[in-house]
Specification:
Elements (H helix, E strand, L loop, with lengths): L3 E7 H13 L2 E7 L3 E5 L3 E6 L3 E5 L1 E2 L16 E2 L8 H4 L9 E6 L3 E2 L8 E2 H10 L3 E7 L2 E7 L5
Antiparallel strand pairs: 1-11, 2-3, 2-6, 4-5, 4-8, 5-7, 9-10, 11-12
Length: 154
């Protein structure tokens, strides 16, 4: 079993999701406790591992996958190589076969990758999207980290 898996998200595709969350009047998630309820959250991208690996916005109302067909669900951006039906490829990684959700809060700050401090995730996404770059979410057994690349996963 591999100790690391890199999930590559093309930022020009992710940018509409992050802008949707940042610009929404409300951001919320659905939880079961004990029945389905909504909980307000800060602007967030949800990294979902279920029938592939993808990002969705917590902005409300949801960003539809197809505005002409609201029942089509939320707009999703899949990790490169981990689209629908890719669960078998995840089985030999730290993710394994489990389904889960990680919250990537767009207003959280971290050390900037350009030597500055307190850079918001939304700022990094916008900056690297303009360059045609990628966000790489690296999962290890003890957690995950986010980095940014200008090259592609190929």
């Amino acid at each position: 079993m591999s100790n690391v898996v890199d999930l590559w998200f093309h930022l020009p595709e992710v940018l509409p999701l992050s802008r949707h969350a940042m610009d929404a009047d409300e951001n919320k998630i659905f939880v079961d406790s004990p029945g389905p309820v909504t909980v307000p959250v800060d602007p967030t991208l949800l990294l979902v591992v279920a029938d592939g690996v993808y990002l969705i916005s917590t902005g409300w109302p949801r960003l539809p996958a197809d505005p002409a067909r609201p029942a089509a669900g939320s707009f999703r951006v899949y990790a490169h190589g981990f689209g629908p039906g890719s669960e078998a490829a995840l089985g030999s990684t730290p993710i394994g076969g489990r389904h889960f959700v990680e919250h990537l809060v767009l207003t959280d700050t971290s050390d900037g990758h350009d030597g500055t401090d307190d850079i918001q995730l939304q700022h990094e996404i916008s900056k690297y999207a303009e360059l045609g770059g990628w966000m790489v979410v690296t999962f290890r057994r003890d957690g995950f980290e986010i980095s940014y690349r200008r090259d592609n996963p190929n």
